[in-house]
């Protein structure tokens, strides 16, 4: 089974360019998780149902902002948007400026016979770090609690734009970026908690060292020079470690400032 995740930075843009259609035709993902769709179902000019996919969307209340989607060839047993009620009651999801991250369409969980797929678009800490407190104290712990709750029933695959470079190997220039959004101690600690809880960073099963990036700034020809960050991930429960047969970054796929990431799972 081929599972792909891609922050498309606007699904209407990548469909207008034909990039998404070409990608799907070439790679034929069994499950495709998208982040930052910036749209509602029906707004993108692409007939995925005609290509054998079931569509599930979680769109933000604010039009043209955030949002996630899952396109899957196999119909899930169930699909849930957002977090369960117990988690919502335990954590605070509104930032210091009154923006409610629960209204931003950031999480979809799809249940399959042998595992869950969860896609996430983690809130950006912002240049002024105005959302760092939300990330560190509430969002990251809540998302981990959500995945561990699902894991009580069956293993979990979670993927998406986590908006953090975990280690110094995960960005081209760690020194000048230390303490900035995406590379604060708090965000990195939040990611480490996923690892400590038993989730496996699948890319690191197959690839070591630097140079494996998934996002590049539009400035200074960063992508061509591969001066980037790895902030898009696929993690799996420890029970699925041996089932992961490949993990890849598809930097040749254009159309967004992010590129797709994928795993091949032996089901």
Description:
With 267 residues, the protein is an alpha+beta fold. It has one domain (2-265): Deoxyribonuclease I, Chain A, CATH 3.60.10.10. It is 21% helix and 25% strand. The chain is built from six helices and 14 strands. It has helices spanning 11-16, 19-27, 85-90, 132-151, 174-177, 185-196; strands at residues 2-7, 31-35, 54-58, 68-72, 78-81, 107-111, 116-121, 156-161, 199-201, 215-216, 228-229, 232-237, 244-249, 261-265. The radius of gyration is 17 Å and the shape is globular. The model has no long low-confidence stretch (mean pLDDT 96).
Shape: globular
Indicate how many domains the architecture comprises: 1
**Under the CATH scheme, which class?**
Alpha Beta
Q: Strand pairing plus helix content: what structural class? A: alpha+beta
Give the radius of gyration.
17 Å
CATH topology: Deoxyribonuclease I, Chain A
Main sheet: strand order: 3-4-2-1-14-13
CATH superfamily caption: Endonuclease/exonuclease/phosphatase
Which blocks of ≥5 consecutive residues have pLDDT under 50? none
Number of strands: 14
Give the fraction of residues assigned to helices. Answer: 10-25%
Report the β-strand fraction as a percent range: 15-25%
Which architecture would the CATH scheme give at its second level? 4-Layer Sandwich
How many strands, which pairing sense, and closed or not: the largest β-sheet?
6 strands, mixed
- State the end-to-end distance: 7 Å
> Can you give the mean pLDDT?
96
Please provide the ordered H/E string of secondary-structure elements: EHHEEEEHEEHEHHEEEEEE
């Amino acid at each position: 089974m081929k599972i792909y995740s891609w922050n498309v930075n606007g699904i209407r843009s990548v469909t207008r360019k034909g990039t998404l259609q070409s990608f799907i035709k070439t790679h034929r993902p069994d499950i495709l998780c998208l982040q930052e769709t910036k749209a509602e179902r029906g707004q993108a000019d692409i007939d995925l149902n005609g290509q054998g996919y079931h569509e599930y969307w979680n769109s933000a209340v604010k039009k043209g902002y955030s949002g996630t989607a899952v396109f899957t060839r196999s119909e899930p047993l169930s699909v849930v948007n957002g977090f369960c009620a117990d988690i919502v009651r335990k954590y605070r999801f509104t930032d210091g400026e009154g923006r409610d991250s629960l209204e931003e369409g950031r999480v979809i969980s799809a249940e399959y016979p042998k595992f869950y797929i969860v896609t996430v678009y983690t809130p950006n800490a912002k240049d002024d770090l105005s959302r760092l407190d939300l990330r560190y104290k509430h969002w990251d712990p809540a998302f981990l609690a959500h995945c561990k709750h699902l894991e009580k029933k069956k293993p979990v695959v979670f993927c998406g734009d986590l908006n953090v470079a975990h280690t110094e190997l995960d960005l081209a220039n760690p020194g000048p970026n230390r303490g900035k959004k995406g590379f604060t101690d708090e965000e990195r600690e939040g990611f480490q908690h996923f690892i400590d809880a038993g989730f496996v960073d699948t890319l690191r099963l197959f690839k070591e060292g630097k140079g494996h990036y998934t996002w590049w700034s539009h400035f200074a020809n960063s992508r061509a020079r591969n001066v980037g960050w790895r902030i898009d991930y696929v993690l799996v429960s420890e029970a699925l470690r041996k089932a992961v047969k490949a993990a890849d970054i598809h930097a040749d796929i254009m159309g967004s400032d992010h590129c797709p990431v994928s795993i091949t799972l032996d089901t």
